[in-house]
Amino acid sequence: MTTPPGRPDQPLPGEREAHLSVSAPKSRRRRVVLADPKGRGRVLRTIGELEEQTSVGEKLIRDLIRTQLRSAFSLGLGLLGFFALLPVVFYALPQLAEVELVGVRLPWLVLGLLPFPLCYTVGYAYRRLAETNEQDFVNSVDR
């Protein structure tokens, strides 16, 4: 038998079928279990409690909402506190308020340009925190 040039390792289609039928012994089927069936009932019960809005389901949702609100208020108050302190800093340090960059005083630059990227960054951080909280919630329900 000659093999076509460029494909020395691959047998011809007829040879492949003959090779497989001769060399492969017939194996028995085996059952493969990928998950523990004992834990599934608890997950379904918890999901049922969430859907039926039982007292346990309401507590789980209330805890998720409380966590989300805590994240939102902490980031929002931190941002608000930072921007509230900027005028105080410029008032307390007048030499800092006199600094000019590109012909514009520093307070105008900081208060005019800094809020946009900072608000975007805080929003991005909140989204990541919210996704983490929701994933923790889903993981606690799936346990």
Please explain how this structure is put together.
By secondary structure, the protein is an all-alpha fold. It has helices at residues 13-23, 40-52, 55-92, 94-97, 106-113, 115-142; strands at 100-101, 104-105. A two-stranded antiparallel ribbon has the order 1-2.
Class from helix and strand fractions: mainly alpha
Rg over alpha carbons: 32 Å
What would the average pLDDT be, to the nearest integer?
78
The string of secondary-structure elements, in order, is HHHHEEHH
Low-pLDDT ranges: none
Question: Sheet bearing the most strands, described?
Answer: 2 strands, antiparallel
User: Distance between termini?
Assistant: 60 Å
* Shape call: elongated
The tally of beta strands, per DSSP, is 2
Helix content: over 70%
Compute the number of helices: 6
* Strand neighbour order, sheet with most strands: 1-2
Domain tally: 1
Proportion of strand residues: under 5%
